[in-house]
Fold this sequence. Notes:
The protein has 377 residues and is an alpha/beta fold. The chain contains nine helices and 21 strands.
Amino acid sequence: MRRILMFCLVFALTACALNDETPRAQTADGQPPAVTDRRELIVLTAGSAASLTKVVESLDYTVRAVHPLPELNDTLIVLRIPETRTIPTAIEEIEAAAPGVTAGANHLYRLQAIAGADRRDYAAAMIGWPKGGCRARVRVGMIDAGVTPGHRGLTDGRIAQRSFVEGSANTRHGDRVAELLVGRGRLRGTELLSARVIDPALEGGNAAGVVAILRAVNWLAAKEAKIVNVSLAGPYNKLMDRALSQAAADGMTLVAAVGNAGPRHPPQYPAAFPFALAVTAVDREGAIYRNAVRGPHVDLAAPGVDILLTLDGRPSVSSGTSLAAPFVTNVIAADPALARLPVATLRRKLARRAKDIGADGHDTTFGAGLVSATPNC
Length: 377
């Protein structure tokens, strides 16, 4: 079985586009979610890319790009939809013309953190994380905005980065998540693999498309990352389902932020996939983050409100489910009893150790409760 990555997916998708998926791909007001381009279709095929190209070109589609994803046993093909079709009709047409392929929209997935003003450094102590940090037992990655050029982690070799988009988004979100993963007092003895997927041309540089995310998954799988933190959230997307379920079958565990769309919003993905660990955020008192998505898919809670960080040598405070997920990633990566478990077993063990902070037992707000670190990592 191919060694793959454990994702801490924390990305949220926008809410307004085409009804090209299942009823799950809707926002709280019933509208379909946003896409990168209304004339763009993404196709995954396990067969010959050349054969599929002949089929789609005979139907007047234009091939924009082809991206082999060998670690996921697929090839990703980006198509230009003819003016006479919509995304829903294009999906139906391509899947009928080429049985076995999966076609879908290139949905957008947004970062899940908001800058704050408070300054309280409580998070590590709250979950029992040692002050000196812990040694990582497996390779760790993240799918995010990437860390900025000149970041100390890049210059001293603690972070290895690859970009899957053109240009650089004007956000420090990736810096914040990287600090929570491998900063001072966090994980030691590992190189963080940073996959940069946030596109400066999408949603003001705050979102990623499916193509970049799946290419990042393939790269991290090839680099044998076992745990990957993903700070994005969005709607159900069957391309994501197909690719990530393949990664999960090969040993990947997803640790994903539930998203910041609010308590009445439908479940966000990839957190809501059954092969993912869905993480919500709480404050220092154990109260739920007001913008956190809720639902039966929520697995665990972690500190994510008024999290103290250091950017450019100065204190910075942020909140969001993006910032809660890295605490769960770190707990798993540092514990030799957890780091290599399949997700179903891992979910049970983490639930047994969690501190119940909501209704008795598992609930739709906190899941099993507050994540707990092992004291002897």
